[in-house]
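Chain A, query sequence.
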Amino acid sequence: TALDPQPARAARPQPEHLRILRLCARPVAVAEIAARLDLPVSVTVILLSDLLEAGRITARPPHPVSRATEDLDLLQKVRDGLGRL
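Chain A, predicted structure.
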């Protein structure tokens, strides 16, 4: 009997992949992962894409901010106050 060929992408995970998996035990932003790994966001996105393609992680869109107008009002007040300094 012939043996089934190994999948082409069955390479050992890189240490960064394993660190990402530990960080992703809870939902976390890409920027936070990049900061914790001390890597550029662009490199982190590539590593995350590898894990996503392998089915090891899932991706979700960010949660909408419900108080956006309140936050914008506060930011404008801060900006105005700083402009008066």
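The two ends are 81 Å apart (CA to CA). The domain at 15-84 is CATH 1.10.10 (Arc Repressor Mutant, subunit A).
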